[in-house]
Amino acid sequence: MATVELSFSALPVHVRTARLIVTAVARRSGIDQDLLDEVRLAVGEACSRAVAAHRRHCPDEPVRLELIDTDHRFEVIVSDSVPGDDTAGPGGSAAPAGLPEAGAARGLETAEDLETALDDGSMDLGLAVIEGLAEDVEITTTPKGVQIRMSWPSAPAATS
């Protein structure tokens, strides 16, 4: 399993750099050419969300990005350092406004479900976009920050 780790300062200009790096690593990991745009857009949304949160709450902390290449999956983890809602207790499962509970967004089965979630504020648009672009998404909130884990199927990469 190959892993690439990247951390960058909370500046919007660095989101583009992150997208370029993710695209290159995804291509090398065997992601189908037709999925590369989805990977790039989902990671851009997750990084933009993290950068915006950092700029509001902890501008000196870096956003962290992990790219994990296994035999059949390409996984991207975007982590911020903006604490979640501590009212959840030790489990840290309560989500800040607009962030669903881990796995909750998978309950969006119809356009009406999505519209309701956006209208009532239980999900923000960026997270809805990520849910639509990545094959598998897991959002975890803790007192230490928010982590968005996304993955796509990949073919074993050829070594060169």
Can you lay out the helices and strands and say which pair or pack?
Layout (H helix, E strand, L loop, with lengths): L1 E7 L4 H17 L6 H22 L5 E7 L3 E7 L31 H9 L5 H9 L2 E7 L2 E9 L7
Antiparallel strand pairs: 1-2, 2-3, 3-5, 4-5
Outline of the structure:
36% of the residues lie in helices and 23% in strands. It is an alpha+beta fold and 160 residues long.
Please, what is the average pLDDT?
78
How many domains is the backbone divided into?
1
CATH topology description = Heat Shock Protein 90
- The rough form would be described as globular
CATH class category: Alpha Beta
User: Separation of termini?
Assistant: 16 Å
So, CATH architecture?
2-Layer Sandwich
Number of strands: 5
Helix content: 25-40%
How many DSSP H or I helices? Answer: 4
Estimated share of beta-strand residues: 15-25%
Report on the biggest sheet.
5 strands, antiparallel
CATH H-level superfamily:
Histidine kinase-like ATPase, C-terminal domain
Low-confidence stretches: 85-108
Q: How would you spell out the order of helices and strands? A: EHHEEHHEE
